[in-house]
Structure formats: C-alpha cells, structure tokens
Specification:
alpha+beta
Length: about 80
C-alpha cells in the first residue's frame, strides 16, 4: 500500500514540475507595412470575425529558427454582402 502511495505521489510531483515548464506565449506584434516577415511554418490562423467593417486578426507562425511569433493585422470582416 505504501509503495502505491509513493508511486502516485511521485507521478503527481513529476506532472506538476512539467506543468511549470510550459513556455510563455509570445507577445502579439502589430504588422507594419513593409515589415520583413520570416515565416517558415504557419501554426494557427485565428478565424476572421463575421462583421462588415475592418477587424483585427492574428496569425501564429514559426520563423526559420523555429521560434514562435504572433502577428496581429487588420482585415475586412467576412460579414459583408451586397
């Protein structure tokens, strides 16, 4: 019984140590015209809002060094119809 308890406690401690090591998410950088972008792999593209005016969107990507970046940019919403 004591062995099982020690095994469970060891598992909980190792999981909590792993949870503390999760990397912080990068800051969102606003796009400026002419900005050099080093996009090697797109990780995520946030869905564009269903509105009929300019709105903010985000793309998460990895650069050629494997670092993750989040880029914020303006885009026309998808809610317009004629």
């Amino acid at each position: 019984m004591k062995n099982r308890l020690l095994l469970v406690l060891a598992g909980v401690v190792s999981l909590s140590a792993y949870a503390e090591q999760t990397p912080a998410s990068p800051d969102v950088v606003s796009y400026d015209y002419g900005m050099h972008l080093d996009i090697s792999q797109v990780v995520n593209m946030a869905p564009i809002a269903d509105v009929c005016w300019p709105t903010l969107a985000q793309i998460t990507y990895k650069d050629s060094h494997g670092e993750v970046h989040i880029l914020g940019y303006s885009v026309m919403g998808t809610g317009c119809s004629n």
